[in-house]
Each structure stands twice: as structure tokens, then as C-alpha cells.
Amino acid sequence: MVNERVKDMTLTNYWWLLIWLVVIGGVLAIVAPKSTVQVLGKTEYRWSWPAVILLACPYAVWCMNRSNFGDTEVYRTTFLNAPAVISQIPMYLAEHTKDKGFSVLMILIKSVVGNSDKLFFLIIAVFQIFCVVYFFRKFSTSFLLCMFMFVASTDYLSWMFNGMRQFIAVCITLLCFGLALKKKYIFAVCLILIAATIHGSALLMLPILFVVQGKAWNKRTILMMAGVGVAILFMNQFTTILDTMLAETQYSDLMTNEIWTNDNGTNIFRMLFYSIPAILSLIGKRFVDEENSAVINMCVNCSICTALMYLLSVFSSGIYIGRLPIYTTLQGYVAVPWLIDHMFTKESARLVKMVLICGFLAFFYYQMHLTWGII
Length: 375
Description:
The protein is built from 22 helices and 2 strands. The chain is mostly helical.
């Protein structure tokens, strides 16, 4: 009976994404006991795991029961047509050469759950939501606000309902954050290389891993800004260089295919929206420098990378370049509540958070109603 109820939990009213978060999350924030975590040797008070799991569970179940959203049917068909026997992996990989890690993962899951596409989606969703909540719980001063930004920005729908394969890679690289803070680069690089077998775009995190080190707004981030500026000014030459770099990869036809040539780039409104953490950090740079927190420094630098990649996608491709900033977007969310609490007085911080929440709600409505037309 319980299993049937879980299967029937199909998301038909997308407002429930926010209603659950606000109502249940608000109650848990008040009544759930806090627990301690160690962040770079410092004791921090965070949500307890039972409260985190309770809040996150429906988001995994809704992913399991999704249908006809984005690439869902493509993933479903691919899974149903894949072999269910591990010994057939070499034969399958010989025919499917793109992102072999995902193919192996899919067959391994199918060998356990059989032909149940719902269980396949559930296992992937549980892993993804665990990585997200683990990251927010450990490194954010406001777990609930970060979850709200993740859901209200429609990142949850865009990636866990749609770009599932790339988001698996994103979640694996998200686990590198703590390793990078402790300068365990060998382990971090190994994780990134594993993520790249799931989705090749994860290789982007190799240079970013070192760009985001050090103080916020350091010389490396400024150099990256200059590089993006040059790429925009010389877009034709930039696309030629990118085409040459991709010549021997699975993305060799990227610059000439119909999707790229007909792509008008990312909407500038979207670019400005996702640049909020970077803009806020620039305004409050003095507070960031005074605190000199390794976590906040890295999160701020990640937010700069997000803003720059979105800026580049405005002038190039929203479909291809515009999908890359997700690798550093969630880190920027972590910086936001810290910046607000340190830049403003207690009373002003409440007001700023309310304005921020209203802004994210407006974006949610814009994306869900005007862009996607699903509410």
C-alpha cells in the first residue's frame, strides 16, 4: 500500500514544489533540533539529517514519477532498450561511444532493478538530491534559503527532471568542493575525471578547480573576466578556436550543427538573474575580505565563474554554453545568505531576504508560466 502511494505521487501542480518547501521547511526550521558539523576544523550548527531527509524526500519521489518533461522520454527509452546483463556492457559500449560512464551506470542499475524505469529515475534522483542537500547542509549558513533558491530558480526541474545525465556529473563534481578546500587535488581531479565519463562537460571543472582557489575576486578571476571579454569581442575567432579544440572529440560537430547555428544565446534577463550572487559579493567585497573564509571565498569565485559563463552564453549559445554554469551555480547560492547576514544589520537582512525571495518567486513564475507554459 505504501509503495502504491509513492508511485501515485505524481507532480501535477508545480506550485507544490514551493508549498512543500515553505510550509514543511518553515516548520522544520523552527522545531527540528540542530546538530553540529565540522567545517575546516570549525564547529557549525546545521539542520539534523532526519529533518533534511524529510524535506528532500518528495523531490526525489516527484522525479521518479515524472513524464513528458524535457528529455525524460529519451532517458526512459534509452534505459528500456539497454541490456540488463553486466556481461553485455562491452558490446553496448562498442555501439554507444558517447559518455560511456553513464551507459555503464545505467546497465548496472538495470541489472539490479530490472525493467523498472521508475526505480531507475528514483535511484538517480536520490543520489542527486543527496549531493545537493549534503552540500547545502554542510557549507551554507541557511540550508532552507539555499534549497529555496535551488527550487525557485527552476534548477531542480531543469536538471533533475530534464538534464539528468549532466546533473549526475555536476553532483559528482560538487563532492570535490570539500576536497578542494582541503587542497586534496589528486582526489578531486579523480572525481572530476569520473564525472567526465558521465558527461564530458565535467572537464570544465579541471581549470575552474584552480581558478576558484584563493581570495575572492583574485587575479585569476579577473584574468578569467578579461578572457571572457576578449572572447565576446572576437566571437568569430573564439568559435573557430573552440571548433579546433573539439575536432577530435564527441562534440566535433558542435559549431556547425543546426542547434548551434540557430541558437540566439541565453536571455539577458536569465544572465542577470544568475549573476545576483556575484554582484552581491562585489558590493560586499570588504566584508568577504575581512572574514577571509575559505568556504565563502571559493563560493564567491564560483559565482563569478557562473556570471561569466552566462555572459558568454548570451553572445554565443544558450543551449550549449548556457548549460555549463550549473557546475558553479549551487556554490553561489551558498554565498548569498552569508553575504546578506554580514553586509546588513539584522533588521535590514530580513528585508533583503524578503526582497530576494520575492525576486526568485517572480523568476519562478516567469520561467514556469511565460517560458515553459506549465502553470
